Structure formats: structure tokens, C-alpha cells
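User: I'll paste a sequence; please echo it back and then give the predicted structure.

Assistant: Echoing your sequence first, then the prediction.
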Amino acid sequence: MTTRVATAADLDAIMALEHASFPTDAWSPAMMREELASPHGFYVVVEEAGRLVGYAGLRAVHGARDADIQTITISAAARGRGRGRALLATLLDEAVSRGVHDVFLEVRADNPVAQTLYLSEGFVEVGRRPRYYQPDDVDAVVMQLDLRGWSARRAEGAGAAASGIPGTPPAGPSAPARPTDGKGWC
């Protein structure tokens, strides 16, 4: 598994995964192209055996105190192995490097797998957007993460695991449950 910064050359593979994962509300190629080229965006891809199996994006204006997770998508065959969590951590690390304090995201109300992942990393629900995802009429759950707190907890967990303190879980991703409905969620 290789994680690297996405480039314009990845657009076709990203769009293939986007349409397979989000058949009713996929982004357009033009929208994704703009995101990949934006100085405010940070997109990464995951490859296995030379094949793109996931991608994720962050929008973080340099110097701003907040940022938004734009997307995290894993192919159906690659889910359930911690790749979504790893991509999320990569985005959050980038947000830390940009001096961000708070990270926001919207997640489908009918996506418990992603909600569980985000909650486990410290995101909290701060609102709902009724019927946000169209044409499915699905609400968006708006979530927020105190990035400084996340970063401190992560550093404490890594330090405790490295010190061999009994009962302390090892640092690193744990695999979220595998979704059963075939959607492109973490």
C-alpha cells in the first residue's frame, strides 16, 4: 500500500472510484480537477499493486483556523482494513501542519461506518443539514474536531505505547467495520 499526494494524472482513476462509490451524487470531473489544482486543497491517493483504491481531500486555506474534510473514499474491495482511518490521519496531519485549530465535515446520516470512524477520532456532531445529499434526500451530519486536542491525544497515545505502559493500546490505525451496502464509505 502506497499513500501519496494526488496529481492531475490521477483524475480518471479518482473519477472512476467516485462514480462507483457515489452513483447518485458523484462530483463532476471539473469539480474534482479544480480541487486537485487548488492551492487550498490537499488530496492524497492510496494505491495497491499500481491500482488506485482510495482517495481523500482536505480544504484548508493557508493561515485559516479551520478546515474541511472534503471526501474520503475507499474501493469496495479495499474496505475494512484501516485505510479510511489512515487517510483521515493523513488529512489531519496536514491540517496540523497548516496551523488549523478546528476541522469540519459533513457525513451522510445513513452512513454509520463513517460516523463511527469520525467519532472514534474525536469528532463531535454540531448540527444537521436536512436533505443535504440529493437526489437521495439524506441529511448531512455536521461534525467538528478540535484538532489541537486530537494532536495532543495522538502524541500521548504514541508516547504511552512506546513506553510499554500496560493496558495502553498501541499507536496506529485500527480497522473500522466493513460496510455491507456497497457504498464508498470509509
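Residues 165-186 have pLDDT under 50 and may be disordered. The first helix runs from residue 11 to 21.
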